[in-house]
């Protein structure tokens, strides 16, 4: 499936409607970039959606870190997602029993199911989490990603865990359309793989640097990861070597003085890595 184009995968009859829309707009806009909009104010969130909208396929949110969350801001975000043709992905990482996640998805302050095209869930609690979320989201035409691997150091997502997670997705093709993972974990071309922990300057470049110059203090810590266990790889590694489909980039873009220019660098790097992968065919 790594060799099939996004467009060809959109055309498969068994591809979930959300994945179809995603693959199609990725081909149209020439982007496999998802920006992780980890900001604390709605105005900044909307500014990101307006400026980066044309460059991204998905905007990933953490609405529970917003200090001024409002449904009014969410409605504006929805308008921008229509205007610039990107999907909204609330990175809620549901992880409880089916009945609880159903309420968390539908209700509370955030009413996630009313606006987010995509949500995700940990598989740790078993298949009930999917059944619960599906009871709310399927009729709304929404889709879910299962977290099969994590980017952080010491993550407990073992090979067996990842394998069982893929099987769980396989039993719910009408709702689960892909994975959060560091690499391609499913052989089905209809599955979408999205990968976080991406920066243009990753640990690998650093290792080479370290071999030559040794003193560790020469290498800014942020090139390796962060102080809290995040680990980074490059767009090229993620898309071409690991066979994932979408790069998720937060601080790589957010910490730049010109976010649009930086996002364009990531879009280009991700897209070129995709083109080289598809042309290997
Ligand atoms: N994220 C990860 N790793 C995972 C799953 N999710 O980093 O395994 C999310 C984080 C954050 C984003 O919650 O929103 O992806 C990564 O941000 P960064 O690019 O600034 O490190």
Automatic annotation (TrEMBL):
Coiled coil start-end: none
Associated pathway: Pyrimidine metabolism; UMP biosynthesis via de novo pathway; UMP from orotate: step 1/2; Pyrimidine metabolism; UMP biosynthesis via de novo pathway; UMP from orotate: step 2/2
EC number annotated for this UniProt entry: 2.4.2.10, 4.1.1.23
Range covered out of full length: 235 to 515 of 515
Catalytic residues (positions): 91 (for ompdecase activity), 93 (for ompdecase activity), 96 (for ompdecase activity)
Organism: Hemibagrus guttatus
One GO term (biological process): 'de novo' pyrimidine nucleobase biosynthetic process
Name of the featured protein: Uridine 5'-monophosphate synthase
Sites where the protein binds substrate: 38, 60, 151, 230, 250-251
Domain of life: Eukaryota
Keyword flag Ribosomal protein: no
Stated family: In the N-terminal section; belongs to the purine/pyrimidine phosphoribosyltransferase family. In the C-terminal section; belongs to the OMP decarboxylase family.
């Amino acid at each position: 499936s790594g060799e099939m184009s996004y467009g060809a995968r959109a055309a498969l009859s068994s591809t979930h409607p959300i994945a179809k829309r995603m693959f199609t707009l990725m081909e149209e806009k020439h982007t496999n970039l998802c920006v992780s909009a980890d900001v604390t104010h709605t105005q900044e969130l909307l500014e990101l959606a307006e400026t980066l909208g044309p460059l991204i396929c998905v905007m990933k949110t953490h609405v529970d870190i917003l200090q001024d969350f409002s449904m009014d801001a969410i409605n504006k975000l929805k308008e921008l997602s229509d205007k610039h043709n990107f999907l909204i992905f609330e990175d809620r990482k549901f992880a409880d029993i089916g009945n609880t996640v159903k309420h968390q998805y539908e209700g509370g302050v955030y009413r996630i199911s009313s606006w987010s095209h995509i949500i995700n869930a940990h598989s740790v609690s078993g298949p009930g989490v999917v059944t619960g979320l599906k009871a709310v989201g399927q009729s709304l035409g929404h889709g879910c990603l299962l977290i099969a691997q994590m980017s952080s150091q010491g993550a407990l997502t073992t090979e067996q865990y990842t394998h069982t997670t893929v099987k769980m997705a396989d039993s719910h093709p009408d709702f689960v359309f892909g994975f959060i993972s560091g690499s391609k974990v499913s052989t089905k071309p209809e599955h979408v793989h999205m990968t976080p922990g991406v920066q243009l300057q990753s640990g690998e470049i650093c290792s080479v640097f370290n071999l030559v110059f040794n003193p560790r203090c020469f290498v800014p810590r942020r090139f390796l990861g962060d102080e809290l266990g995040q680990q980074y790889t490059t767009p090229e590694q993620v898309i071409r070597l690991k066979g994932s489909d979408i790069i998720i980039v937060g601080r790589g873009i957010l910490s730049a003085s010109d976010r649009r220019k930086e996002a364009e660098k990531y879009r280009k790097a991700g897209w070129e890595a995709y083109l080289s992968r598809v042309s290997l065919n």
